[in-house]
Amino acid sequence: MKKVLIIAYYWPPAGGPGVQRWLKFVKYLPDFGIQPHVYIPENPTYPIIDAELEKEVSDKAIIIKKKIFEPYALASIFSKKNTNKISSGIIPNQRKQSLLQKMFLWIRGNVFIPDARVLWVKPSIRFLEKYILENQIDTIITTGPPHSLHLIGLGLKEQLALNWIADFRDPWTTIGYHSELKLTVNSAQKHKKLESKVLNKANSILVTSATTKKEFQLLTKKNIHVITNGYDVEQIEKVTLDEKFTLAHIGSFLSQRNPRILWKCLKELIKENKNFKEDFELKLIGAVSQEVLDTIAEFRLEKYVNNLGYVSHKEAVSQQRSSQVLLLVEIDSEITKSIIPGKLFEYMVSERPILALGPENSDFETIIKSTNTGVFHLYDEYDELKLTILEFYKKYKTQTLQVNAIGLQQYSRKNLTKQLAELIQSKR
């Protein structure tokens, strides 16, 4: 069986979307004749814990652990709340940032380049060089963020004759929060230089969207392959649909994603339609920024909110299948067109309609429309958005609110792993 070394930071018991991609790849790689060796930190600082995910780790995977120095662990002594938020990508609005928050962001962006796990790089290169030789491994995969893990791949590539695949779950210098890190000119240049070095030294690049591929093609001539995130078959008990007309958002609700157009629509519908007012519930599952909650209150919607906080992945799947409508929101920006939220694929197989907001020509707009799994709106389509919500509500009242999805099989985790296995075997 061919061996491959996967270098990852997010791994069970870490919760959230960052862990799912490689947890599932590792689950199915043995089915295609590949033995995964997974290198992870022994003492990570995860902002979200989901112990249930440990049950999903393949018993065919070989897990290697090494202690690291975690600056977030040190920072949490001063402010655990701020540390967890920043490490989760939840960055407060600039106008509302405290002095401590500003200091944390400046240190994160300018001291730890490319990120707070950079101190893991050199010890890992030394440790893994020996491990790779002893176990006769010829292919390594690094996955980021954190993008410092790509520097481990870079160091190993410079020392050994390896096939190195660099997997970008998110972009590097164009990811949404990058501009919030209070970078100096010199620090911004260092990020760009490291990004370019990784993109041009790796044998092949793996990305999750077509837009990121186009972006990287301007920076490298190396082969770039798109393998999206996807869905897995989830074994959960049959659920009953919510009695209320629930509009549910599952996952982190960042400050920058705050959809004022939606809150305005909902406020108007509540004001104009007595039945809608009685039936409506906004269900929030996962970390929600204070700015989002404040804006909801500004539109006097707080009494309609059911804020469940973070729940296990299994419970999240159950909640999305019981909800009437699933909400998907992406920042209205040019640089977010490439972002395909991981939850989209679980949304798609939940058999519940998706209500999506995002920038024009975004990659997830294409997926939603091609699979017939929901309705997508731009941020300036107020009347159209209001009409869509009202149409969903009318169907809810007549018990005809459903989805007739098409072409979902291409996004199954096993099918996507087959594509990865072919890439590993081909060394393209």
Which features characterize this protein?
single chain, about 425 residues, alpha/beta, Rossmann fold, 2 domains, seven-stranded parallel sheet, six-stranded parallel sheet
Overview of the molecule:
- By secondary structure, the protein is α/β, with parallel strands linked by helices.
- It has two domains: 2-69 and 110-230 and 413-426, 3-Layer(aba) Sandwich (Rossmann fold), CATH 3.40.50.2000; 245-397, Rossmann fold.
- It has helices at residues 20-28, 71-87, 99-110, 121-135, 148-159, 185-201, 210-217, 260-272, 274-279, 290-298, 313-322, 343-348, 363-371, 382-397, 413-426, and strands at residues 2-7, 34-41, 62-66, 139-144, 163-168, 204-207, 223-226, 245-250, 280-285, 305-309, 325-329, 354-357, 374-377.
- The strands form two sheets. It has a seven-stranded parallel β-sheet. A six-stranded parallel β-sheet has the order 10-9-8-11-12-13, with helices on both faces.
- Helix 1 (20-28) links the parallel strand 1 (2-7) and strand 2.
- The radius of gyration is 22 Å and the shape is globular.
- The two termini are 19 Å apart.
- 46% of the residues are buried.
Quickly describe the structure:
By secondary structure, this protein is α/β, with parallel strands linked by helices. Helices cover 40% and strands 16% of the residues.
What is the CATH architecture assignment of the largest domain?
Answer: 3-Layer(aba) Sandwich
Helix/strand class: alpha/beta
Number of helices: 15
* CATH superfamily membership of the largest domain: Glycogen Phosphorylase B
**Element-by-element helix/strand order:** EHEEHHHEHEHEHEEHHEHEHEHEHEHH
What is the average per-residue confidence, as pLDDT, rounded to a whole number? 90
CATH class label of the largest domain: Alpha Beta
Q: Percentage of helical residues?
A: 40-55%
Count up the domains. 2
> Remind me, CATH topology of the largest domain?
Rossmann fold
State the total count of DSSP E strands.
13
What is the terminal separation in angstroms? Answer: 19 Å
Apparent shape: globular
Strand content is 15-25%
Which regions contain 5 or more consecutive residues with pLDDT less than 50?
Answer: 73-80, 82-88
Spatial extent as radius of gyration: 22 Å
Q: Give the biggest beta sheet.
A: 7 strands, parallel
Q: Order of strands across the widest beta sheet?
A: 3-2-1-4-5-6-7
